[in-house]
From TrEMBL, chains A, B:
The gene is thiE. 2-[(2R,5Z)-2-carboxy-4-methylthiazol-5(2H)-ylidene]ethyl phosphate binds at residues 137-139, 168, 188-189. Keywords: Magnesium, Metal-binding, Thiamine biosynthesis, Transferase. It comes from Solidesulfovibrio aerotolerans. Pathway: Cofactor biosynthesis; thiamine diphosphate biosynthesis; thiamine phosphate from 4-amino-2-methyl-5-diphosphomethylpyrimidine and 4-methyl-5-(2-phosphoethyl)-thiazole: step 1/1. This is Thiamine-phosphate synthase. One of its GO terms (molecular function) is thiamine-phosphate diphosphorylase activity. PANTHER family: THIAMINE-PHOSPHATE PYROPHOSPHORYLASE, THIAMINE-PHOSPHATE SYNTHASE. Mg(2+) binds at residues 73, 92. InterPro entries: Aldolase_TIM (IPR013785), ThiamineP_synth_sf (IPR036206), ThiamineP_synth_TenI (IPR022998), TMP_synthase (IPR034291).
């Protein structure tokens, strides 16, 4: 199957603790149906065997729908599941090491917080940056200080690759996040914890599409 | 550098919490100097970047001394550090998936507890089994029920590959562990927490060598 082109417009980052008891596959399916084209499987508690099984299941779910799946932190899980790439944080494997293991064709994303990390990311073999937290978030305990829209704009200006904003992004602030220079919206709770994940994804996707049409 | 032949006789499994405040590299160096020929880096709390750094450092330490390093659970860390292999538990990546990622020449070890898991390990692409806990252990919270020497003997009899015993093995019970059918001794506290890790390793190594000479 040909890989879909990278579309960072609406990017779902999973959090099984935020699903309101709903099944992960259900919510991811709804998100993709609603317009998410990139999904990050983030698991901080699953054992490796379960993590691989989840990754394989999600690849099988999202790829036929034209979306891509990246794995948080675990390059081995991405390789075993033949996922589309890996998203790493500053404490995870160095992007150069990830690239050596994944080869030239897989996606690598890197989280950055602040101008210093955005500057340090220049020249690294990554495909996009996840810049944040834009606003104060409760879904990631170690997310760091909120950077605000101005901080996001500074990180985006420094970046050599597309940037997605992350951190308490909602339909209410999404247009401002895109206007600040983000190529897309990375969301957790706005979809995972939405009463209607499909409707939530569609609403966010419409904001992305409108911003693109207006550029 | 040519890889050393696999010698399971004395196998150190690291536990940074058991080092009595001493440096990991110091204790591993002493263990290898005392006769450990296989070292497993087990890290349950390190972030991935630190885990890779530790693994690279230990490869550089033990390989010139004729010992080999395997990584607990993390195939990506083993690949990034070019370690000699991976040791997995029942909840970690399936050995067949590990083998696919590591290729035919790296070591794979698998933990088994009880006859059922020993039987299920038959035909898997592993180089050795870590069978235990032989005795009741406090260094691994999820180690399961002690199997005793009789349980170890049953697991060893079922195995198609060499078996190392693990779980509260000391110089006082080491000869009995080997007599029960183990090819080697996997130890954590007996070296990591020993007042003199070099002397502790030498004492255990002497028991292994004596058992081999007597066979």
């Amino acid at each position: 199957m040909t890989r879909s082109p990278l579309d960072l417009g609406l990017y779902l980052v999973t959090d099984r603790a935020a699903l309101l008891g709903r099944d992960l596959f259900y919510v991811v399916g709804q998100a993709v149906a609603g317009g998410a084209r990139l999904v990050q499987l983030r698991e901080k508690r699953a054992c490796t065997r379960e993590f691989v099984e989840l990754a394989r299941g999600l690849v099988a779910l999202v790829r036929p729908l034209g979306a891509q799946l990246v794995i948080n932190d675990r390059v081995d899980v991405a390789l075993a599941a033949d996922a589309d790439g890996v998203h790493v944080g500053q404490d995870d494997m160095h992007p150069a090491d990830v690239r050596a293991l994944l080869g030239p064709h897989k996606l690598i994303g890197l989280s950055v917080t602040g101008e210093e990390e955005a500057r340090a990311a220049r020249g690294l073999p990554v495909d996009y940056l996840g810049a944040g937290p834009v606003f104060a978030t409760t879904t990631k305990a170690d997310a760091g200080e909120p950077q605000g829209l101005a901080g996001l704009a500074r990180m985006a200006a420094l970046a050599e690759v597309p940037v997605v904003g992350i951190g308490a992004i909602t339909a209410a602030n999404a247009a401002a996040v895109l206007a600040a220079g983000a190529s897309g919206l990375a969301v957790v709770s706005a979809i995972c914890a939405a009463p209607d994940p499909l409707a939530a994804a569609r609403e966010l996707r419409a904001i992305v599409d409108a911003a693109r049409a207006g550029r």
